[in-house]
Each structure stands twice: as structure tokens, then as C-alpha cells.
Write a structure and sequence with these properties.
Elements (H helix, E strand, L loop, with lengths): L1 H15 L18 E8 L3 E10 L3 E3 L2 E12 L3 H4 L2 E10 L4 E11 L5 E8 L4 E4 L3 E4 L7 H9 L8 E6 L6 E13 L2 E12 L7 E9 L6 E8 L2 E7 L1
Antiparallel strand pairs: 1-2, 1-15, 2-4, 3-4, 4-5, 5-6, 6-7, 7-8, 8-9, 10-11, 11-12, 12-13, 13-14, 14-15
Length: 240
Amino acid sequence: MKVIYLSILCLAVVVMLLAGAVTQAYCYTPVSGEQLAYSAWFLKIIPVGDIVLGIGKPGQYGGRQLYPIICEAKTAGWISLLFKANAVVTAYVDIKKMFPYRFEQVLKVAGKPDDVREAVYDRQRNIMTAKGKGEKRVPADVRDPISAIFYLRTQDLREGAEIKQTVNSNQSNYIFASKVTGKKKIGKFNCWVLDSKIRRENKSMYHSMDAVIYISDDAAQVPVLVEAKTKVGPVTLRLK
């Protein structure tokens, strides 16, 4: 069960770390009420979870109008009979530039204490404060994993584009680098293919992951499929 649990966590990381851009020719404008649903698979054949990404109604947070972008993940199918876990991750984002100002994560695993994490981004000082871990200086354009995936969707993807972004929600900076290598048909979607590498800033290979991300070649630029290579085996995310 440990392998399955780690796989779900790795998949959640991949979902949340879709990121990057090289131009400002926006193709997609986030809309309150939108939802994207995914199924999670281990070894490409074992269903292990369900994930939903959605945009909530805007509200005032710290004097700014921010949109809550929410990722909900849970174990599914027969796996859930043996192992129950769910996570809710929320980013409070200025959708004009897809900059987060607050990040919250709650992970619930049956029989274990809840894992609660919070981070606040001070955009003027370029400081991120993680609950219980203090302050850390971050790049001016840093994003959390949730805002990163939606930032990607606003960009002008094209073959040959090299994409780089810094992601941080828990004191460690991760460099997410992708290259658009071409197109491929995935189900009913024509998709851009992004070969991606995720590495911790200190270049530790232990904290790394490779993935291929397929983004629909249309105005919505929806992540249709993610194929990640993890230390416990291949993990796949498929749009429902």
C-alpha cells in the first residue's frame, strides 16, 4: 500500500506542477465555475484515484480580489476500500498574472493525523512564509503548483518553445523546464507535446521527476494527459 500511496502523491505533484510560458499571447482566460476532472492510474492499468481542478468565486483576500483555484484528490475504486486518503489544495490567485498570494493544503489519510500546510507570498518583498518553517526568499515570478497549471493554459504554446518556471509552496524552490516537441492526437484532442523535467533548485536528483504533458491545441489549452516517471513506477493522469 505504501507504493500506491506514494504514487498518488507523486501524481498530485505532477498535476500541480504543470507550468511555464515564453510569451504573453494569452489563449485562455480563467472562468469562475470551470472544473476539470481526471482519473489517476498506476502502471497505466491500475486505477488509484480521482482528481478535480476547479475555479471558485472571487473574493477579497488581504485587500485584493483573488480567485480560489481548488484541487481535490482522493483514492478511488477498490483501492479506496483498502486505503482511504484525500487532499484539498487551494491557491488564492490574481488571475490577471496568475500570481498566488496564499496557498493551503490539507491531506487526510485514514488512521493518521491531518497534514496541514499553508504558505503566504509577499510580492513586494519576494518572500514566501510557510507555516512552521519561516520565511524564504523566492523569485519575483514564483508560483505555487496550482496557479502554475493555470498559468500554463494562458500561454501561446508553439513547437520548439522552451518553458521554465519556479514553483514553491513549502520552502523548496523547484525548477520546472519543458520543451514543446510537437503534436499528437490523444483521443478526440489534437495536443501539444511537452517533454518536462522537474528538479529541486539544489540539483538533488532524489527530488526530481520527468513527465510528458499533453495540452489541447485549442483556446482552452486543457491538460489532457500526463505521463510521469516516478521512483515507484509510471503514474498517469487522464482527462475524463
